[in-house]
User: Fold this.
Amino acid sequence: MASEKLNMIEQFKNLDILKVDRRTFLKAVAALGATSFISLYGNQLAEALTFENETKVLWLHGAECTGCSISALNTSAPDFADALAQLNVSVVYHETLLAQQGIFVDGKLVGNSELNGEILLNELVAEGGYILVVEGSIGNGPNGTGKINMIGNHTFKDIFKKTAEKATAVIALGTCAAYGGITVTDSAVKEYCDFMGVNQTENKKGGMMKLLGINKPVINLPGCPAHPDWFFLTVAAVLLGKIDLNNLDGQLDDNGRLKVFYPDTHTLHDNCPRRGFYDRGVLDVQFAEGGCLWKVGCKAPYVHADCALRKWNDGVSVCMQAGGPCIACVEPIFPNGSMPFYVERESAGVLFGVNIGTIAAFAIGAAVVAAGVHAVRRVNKEK
Amino acid sequence: MVKITVDPLTRIEGHLKIMADVNDKGYVTSAQSGGMLFRGFERMLQNKDPRDASLHVARICGVCPISHTQTATNALDHLYNVAESVPENALAVRNFIQAANMISSHATHIYVLFGPDFANPRYRDVLTGPELNLGATGEAVWKELLGRFAPISYKMDGKAIPPGSSYINAISAKKKLQQAIAIFGGKMPHPAVNIVGGVTCTPNVAEISKVGALYLKVLDFVKDFTLGVPLETWVQNTHYAKSPDAAVKFVTDHLANLISKTPDNQFTRENGWKDVELFAAFGSELVGEKILGLPASLRFDKLGGYSDPSKICFISYGAYYKRGQDGYSPESPTGERFWTSGVVSGNLKFEDFDSKKITESIQCAFYEDDVASRHPYDGTTVPLADTDKLDLNAGPADKYSWLKAPRYNGIPGEVGPLARQIVAQDPLVMGLAKAFSDAGTSPANVYTRVLARMQEVAVLAYELVNWVNDIDPSKPFMTTVDLRAAKDNQGIGLWEAPRGALGHWIVGDSKGKVKNYQAIVPSTWNFGPRDENGVPSPVEQALLNNAISGVDNIGGADYNNPVAIYHVGRSYDPCIACAIHTIDATGKNAPKKYELF
Assistant:
């Protein structure tokens, strides 16, 4: 893998990244990751954007855990603040970071936008023209009131409506914002809370945007959390016109994800650092044994994301490398379709809305062609 | 009287609202704290594979996911009867990732969440305004505060202020710690490594060395920004000091020495005024003005204290497994963990912790039940069916929050770094607590809360290397787990998150799946509403009698910029996503069709 990555860097190194066609640009972005990409092209990007207007990012927090913000702060080479500076992006609203807070005296908003967050938000909405980043799902419950999540006397649902209507585009960051994620785990209170994704809830298209009748370009960047590269590189590509917000169709997959980061042509399993063990039939049945995690519940063969190539936290690791089975955290069915996390898929009923028996035979069949001696044995046994 | 509401209180995790009644002199007479989002985590785990809790509940919080995955795993170790046999290697990995997460979470709090308030225009006015007439000293201190702690996208009087130097560099240090966690955990936030019976990773020597290299870089940050004396000198003379008095004397002598050597109000890093020194001296009236003789301070010690010691206690469940052995006790008896469990009264008297003394009240929370208070194991909680009753502006006698109100032996408890170090008897924290107590003020206040957090960063940065060195790649990282052990069994997970005492309780059904699951988390302790006796939660008590604009309202109270609410609220490091939860024992969900064994 390392040598493959080196070759790519070699191949892309001498490009004038601003002049290449969109396809090559996205290929470079996808292949290199933010670390290499921005260190290679940072100056070009900076120059290209010097005379452009500042891009405003308005970042909302719904039903969330702040993990996607923490992940964004983990961005490397450049650091978070440098990345913003290089892209000439200004995070104009972000409740975990901003200096302001909502302030009311006897129920009335007071002060100015330098101290009062709600006044700031109102000013930003009036100006419009920002990229709206949504972290966390949007509560519709109970009974459609949205009261499940209140901020400054408004439901988050209303705040989302007001900000989305004036946005240039919406980025649903993380699986909760994209599909509901952990907040739509099956439970006795699921209906009461009625959490929804921006324009998709689990496998159901439409989400809160449809409910509110809002039509804006939406890019889903799921993940629990979302990878910082996915976010910053998407913003960079949009700013450079390499992603056309008014014509996203060819660039997104069926679940509204950018194909460059969530490839529809292959799965996480294909690039797993433990793939060799699978091919040799070294399938662990206990944890901390160092082999393939298929039999302890790994979902990587069904998951479309580039984590295994890109890796996490400045490229140091990925779940399977640390012995943790993939739990499909980038997929619309997460977590209902991927629980139980540690049980081999065939015995777990339905996954991804497809009968697991069929899909597993297909996946294993593909592996047979590749080299899986063990898999041959198992497929034969199943017959 | 006016009613001041801060909603949302930003720069915290989650959605929190604080309401305060303020009298004509600008002092708080009553306060309410309300959690503004309900997610219902525990109900999600019912009828599921208990082991899923390790990864599922980590998603309660993205700031301290290790604490939740770890506490859930402790509860599972107990449920499956393997707590006593978890290998030392696994305990070392768990200790390391928890400590790295605690340092990173504390650093994020100190610099990114709490710190920006030092750059509030209130302190420009206090330090450079006419009331105190501080001249060049005030100007110099303000310059340091603004230059170090201004957040991103900050503006004053229409002018953009660049982010502070400490702020920016802390983000980078935090990132390296998260990277070190990811080496063991696969990724961070939300790593994949915690599992009942041990950890899933099998780190090799190269990976352990890489963690070591990252550790050294973090120590560089501590040296360059945080602390003006070598880390070892600080920790040996404070955390390991022979008495509380000796620890306080070491710090005040160090600060007095700095002051005497500082030329012309140059309170710069180059002159030894790192962030801890700056805060320790200029954050407190008692330490800065009275002991050290400085002309002014931000007087954080006069905010966030408790006026009635009988209505507060300090709780810790015990943090970090003991080194050098396999296994641990799930009940965390006094003295077993690196930082012991225990409960300390408002008058600073220690007693052993007993989890059976915990109850939760829903009197002022948006849930329905026949009785107001229950022990967690008996808890059945149903969110209000009548949505008209979800009135987040309701008064203190009504339901006004999604948080419940936990009590220990009927008394509200503060949890977090200050409580943890009071329980663990850290000499510096105890020495300061005693000094404030002797001066007739509350031992707990915004100053001691933040200083305790800084102290934990120092102690953990010092101890971290031991936990890395304890990892031996040639020994096992897992013990064998028999899944049948969960049948009709129960487990308790007691642990310490960066924000304080964290407990998870799990009950297995006859098929070995989850019958009941619940979590009582730090911010529920600190930020809950009133209970059925009308007793306010810790933060609601801590706001009473506070000068709404801080610094004794010098220059007059400014209702448009109620800094006292910001400081007191943030001093507990609220994590509201964690704090709101529900317990379910109704068993309404149809089980999924799969067998565990």
Notes: Confidence is low (pLDDT under 50) at residues 581-593 of chain B. Chain B touches chain A through 106 residues (CB under 8 Å). The longest strand of chain B covers residues 500-508. Chain B has one domain: 2-358+409-579.
